[in-house]
Amino acid sequence: MEYVRITSIEDPLFGKMHQLMQNVFPAEEVLEYDLWKEPIADPGIRVFAAVHAGEVVGVTEYRYYDDLNVAMTDFTIIGQHGLSIGQFISKMRLADLNEVAAASGRNIQGMFAEIYDPYRVADHGFGKIKTMDPFVRREVLSHQGYKRLDLNYVHPSWQNDGEPVFGLDLCFLPFDDSQQSISADLVVTFLTRYYTVLPNKPKEWLDMIEALKGRSTVALLGL
């Protein structure tokens, strides 16, 4: 299996990756094909495909914020079972992030991720691939050490229509196992920068950010 970076929508692997995303995620979570042109060429956005026998069997997108010394896993897709794709992607992603952080003379603090909560919203209407079932994905993140941030999380729709998306948790994987909370200022800075690409923010998201500005820390809870 190969870990191949995709940096252009002209790459034949990109079309396969985008189709895989549409097979897994709801429409509001998938950026339109042509709108990927600039983001995927951004050197700060790292999109890698797990390629087996010429086919894209897994994908992950993530980024490292040098000034914050944290990363964000945008998404991870496991397209087939029985190939240890999840383990492969996890190991390769961490090795890549450690290399990027080391280039700045740092040891990375941790990594953010959003995850659906199937215990709150029973029918997501997606996840046609069994390995991407919301219950499975949530337990995988838990096993990896991710913690749920103690806040009522609101996610802006990637359709940029100003609609709020509920039923997700914002999580953080601290690389220091003893860490029990995270700076609220770090969360605000991260979310504000991460969603700069979406100018139409829902009121619920803006209210969440304002509430975070009034806190010093956010507890990390069990997932």
- The total count of helices amounts to 6
Q: Using DSSP, what is the number of strands?
A: 11
Question: What is the CATH architecture assignment?
Answer: 3-Layer(aba) Sandwich
CATH fold node name:
Aminopeptidase
Output the CATH homologous superfamily: Gcn5-related N-acetyltransferase (GNAT)
Average residue-wise pLDDT? 90
Structural class: alpha+beta
CATH class: Alpha Beta
Share in β-strands: 25-35%
Short characterization:
With 223 residues, the protein is of the alpha+beta class. 31% of the residues lie in helices and 27% in strands.
Describe it.
With 223 residues, this protein is α+β, with helices and mostly antiparallel strands. The protein has one domain (2-221): Gcn5-related N-acetyltransferase (GNAT) (Aminopeptidase), CATH 3.40.630. Helices cover 31% and strands 27% of the residues. It contains six helices and eleven strands. It has helices at residues 12-24, 37-41, 85-103, 134-144, 184-194, 203-213, and strands at 2-5, 45-52, 55-65, 70-78, 110-116, 147-149, 155-156, 164-165, 168-174, 181-183, 217-221. A nine-stranded mixed sheet has the order 1-2-3-4-5-9-6-11-10, sandwiched between helices. A two-stranded antiparallel sheet has the order 7-8.
List the helices and strands and how they pair.
Blueprint: E1 2-5, H1 12-24, H2 37-41, E2 45-52, E3 55-65, E4 70-78, H3 85-103, E5 110-116, H4 134-144, E6 147-149, E7 155-156, E8 164-165, E9 168-174, E10 181-183, H5 184-194, H6 203-213, E11 217-221
Parallel strand pairs: 4-5
Antiparallel strand pairs: 1-2, 2-3, 3-4, 5-9, 6-9, 6-11, 7-8, 10-11
